[in-house]
Amino acid sequence: MALANIRGLNIKYEIIGNDGPPTALITGGRRDYTEFRSLATRIAAAGYRVFLHDRRNTGASDISIEGKEVEEAVWANDLLELMNQHDAIPAFIGGSSSGARTAINFCILHPEATRALLLLRVTGGEFAAGHLPEAYYGQFIKLALKGGMEAVCATEQYQERFKENPANLEKMMSMDVEDFIEVMSNWKSLFEEVAHFPVMGVTEDQLRAIKAPTMIIPGNDLTHSSNSAKVAHELIEGSELHQLPVTDQNEPVIPFTKWEHLELEIAETFTEFMNRH
Hints:
The chain is α/β, with parallel strands linked by helices. The protein is built from ten helices and eight strands.
């Protein structure tokens, strides 16, 4: 584990593999990068240098409740800076769920830095559109309105951040509650504007404009509908779709940890694709 100063914030990261083409893997939700360490180790063993990191506001990296862009765009720009610091551009850029949205945003914003995309558990569908804006932003806005920053900081999500990076507690408690509500409300509004697209967070025209080679592995729950991955495959010219031996389930979210038995196939699918590009 190491820390990098990325646009004024301490970002926790790790590089697995000593050489080979650079690759970034981005976890979903607000989970820390350790969820992907095993997958990254498999890919590194195939001859790649794999970058893992905790995005700002996730894991042990610094919290920063500011900015006028959707978080996925902020995360994409942070990742570019991290990769540039290690002379690791262009790179294979991959992720799951919100990590996949970040990877897509990275490619849209920085096509010259994207060697290929590795998309896992693409988010989309009406369930996700109705649920995620509240989960990411709405619930914390309501808490801030009722109980100020103390109420926000008492939540399980923020307690996890403080446990991994105690300095974040002082930063959050010293934040003006009105500023917090303003930023979170803007993020929620920006997120809702793009939440109802078949592939959450990106328009059909943006997907059609992607020229990077792309491998897509569908999810199988209500948040990561297999149909969203199929739409992405249809719209990204030349993309490839790999169906794992799973079927769609009527569950809000299947944790990635429940896919542990699929990790070898995921790694082999990605590395075979990467070897060709």
